[in-house]
Amino acid sequence: MKILRVTLFLAFLSLSVSAQSVYVRLITNKGNIILRLYDETPKHRDMFLKSIKEGVYRDALFNRVIKSFVSQGGELDDSILNQEKRHPEIPGKRLAAEIKPGLYHKKGALGAGRDDNKEKSSYYNQIYLVDGKPQTDAQLDAIELKKGIKYTAKQREIYKTEGGIPRLDQDYTIFGEIVEGMDIADQINSVATDKNDVPLSPVVFKAVVLSKKEAVRLKLNP
After folding, report:
1. Where are the alpha helices (DSSP H) in 28-181?
2. Among 36, 98, 144, 188, which one is least packed by beta carbons within 10 Å?
3. Residues 169-198: tens digit of each pLDDT
4. How far is CA 127 from each of CA 52, 86, 89, 110, 197, rounded to the nearest angstrom?
5. CA proximity to 80, closest of 56, 97, 55
6. Cβ–Cβ < 8 Å for 21, 221
7. Which helix or strand (DSSP H or E) is residue 217 part of?
8. What is the value of pTM for the model shown?
9. Which residues are 193's β-sheet partners?
10. Over the stretch 53-66, which tens digit does the pLDDT of each residue have?
11. Which Gene3D superfamilies would you find in this protein's record (predicted)?
């Protein structure tokens, strides 16, 4: 009986560990940001992890920064679309959308960029951090009416107090959020830019996956 209890405990522990979310540190020249990737969007989580492993985000840039809107990193739209235009024989790569009602564009959310494809599929190597502005009930009512969605009381409260970009909800995949370093994200979103929203001084970052031991040490695991 004692052996059975130990076996069941170890099995439970194994399941608990495997169910824990993955955390990623963005090491930027402004400071560090820690992201939690959502288990509810496994394809985007795994896509991001694969890109990190392949070195896509080793010396990446926040190359499009729009104050009070988003800070975009990774590949630029123009680079992706121009490459596809030059090589029409190679089908464009997109990742099927994982748009979930409970995952929304609150301040600090991590999203996947895309073009105007009707399937709302994401680019493989473009991410953005949501900044946004506080919303009013009237603004949220208008979004609900326009998009046929319904915000929970908690979502409304967060949008009204912390801010975000509700007009992007249900159109882009959100697959994570900032859990540490919101002040650094604010600094990045406030940098001076040119007329094309490109930072005047490069904002460089490297993405590193945290080990489970480090996540536990930082008390990040739920």
Report:
1. 42-53, 77-86, 137-147, 153-161
2. 144
3. 999 999 999 999 999 999 999 999 999 999
4. 12, 24, 26, 7, 16
5. 56
6. yes
7. helix 212-217
8. 0.87
9. 199
10. 999 999 999 999 99
11. Cyclophilin-like
